[in-house]
## 1
Amino acid sequence: MQTEIHASSFSVWHPCAGLVAEENAESLVVADSWLLADGRVRAYEMHWARFTRAVGEFGVEPGAVRPFRAEVTETLPRTGTWFPRVELLAGTQPRLALRVRPAPPLRERARVRVADVPDPRTRPDLKGPDFPLLEPLRRCAQEQGADEAVLLDEHGRAVEGAFSSLLWWQDDVLCTPAEDGRILPGVTRRLLLDRAERLGVTVRHTRATPAELAGREVWITSALHGVRAVTDWGPGLPVPPAPTRVDEWRAHLTDCLAPLPRH
């Protein structure tokens, strides 16, 4: 029988006992999360594939993830709007865990600020290890009235957001940094690039400075919000043009929502 959940919860996976509620006493090593709206989710398989690959780097075999996934899928609520996260916890014995959280308000627009330090991540290709470095950067951006911090490379070009991927339009070309090990392979970003390929939209893998991006239609993407159009880069940078393409692509992400599998 499905467990009924009304508020945030945290539980640790025990192979013999299943998901057991515990105090969150350990930091995470790897995480993955997705929007869950009335039992529907985007790209559930892709999220689990990314999580399975990531925890495999820390010695967790796919065979150990499968029963955990089955119970997570059974446990997740089928009503309401949630932002669950699966985790690999730090410690001498890596443990899998589930955190079920109500989703915060969803946004269609975002204000950004450029981080005041170069990209500090040590594992940008994994979600989780660098959270302690990224959370203060986003918090600093929020203190400046923004929603997200944009990370720059050593040449002053935008890489991605602290917790989001970056795409922008240059005329009819959709641009985004390459998956070269220096960005997170974002699931929502991949859904948009796959759509671009199906539509015959030219995609260019490149980087640009904030000054170059501020005059274009720029999106930040994440599993929670989907696509947010950037409306403000902060003092000293131009006000971005009104977005003209984002609604159509956001509608595509809505169409990607599908019911959770049975197991």
Note: The chain has a mean pLDDT of 95.
## 2
Amino acid sequence: MEPTLSLAERIGLIEDERAVIRLQTAYGYYVDKAQWDEAADLFAADATLEIAGRGLYRGQDRIRSYLKCLPSLLEGTVFNHMQLQPLITLEGDHAWGRWRAIMEVAIRGKVDLVGEATYENRYVRDGGVWKIARLHCFVTYYADWQAGLSGGGVPMGTELPEFPPDAPQTVAYGSFPSVFVPPYHYANPVTGQTWVP
């Protein structure tokens, strides 16, 4: 039987959950507008970042440099990352979160993509402030708007030759048309069973 929490403890958990949601949502808005410094500021000093098959970047400075390799927001570009379905798990000064991102990427006359990614992230309270400790973005599909999903997927990103990662990607997987279920950080809330692929 779990111990009963006081009202103050329950309010504290709600406030922590809201702070983590606000943190991740801010990340999405900064990415939308290619505000790479603002996005990098959300990470802990020893954080890691892993997006698609581009490998793992370690430390806030490396994450900032990686983000600055991504395209700028110029006339004729759209980078939307709508982050939905947050599932937050709190444990003291650490938290885990699973999100779904619906992505729209367009560069006029060149690129016209829609995609989905599942985030499995870890957060840490550092000096009383929640920060991203690990951002792991599993791209499940990218598709050309004109061809649609039935036209097949567009390959997900690979390592950037101009800025190699600190380590290879930690989970080998493929995006659509391959089938991949990103690992869950939590057990089933009803059965308590952990899903194993």
Note: The beta strands are 43-51, 56-58, 77-91, 94-107, 111-126, 129-144.
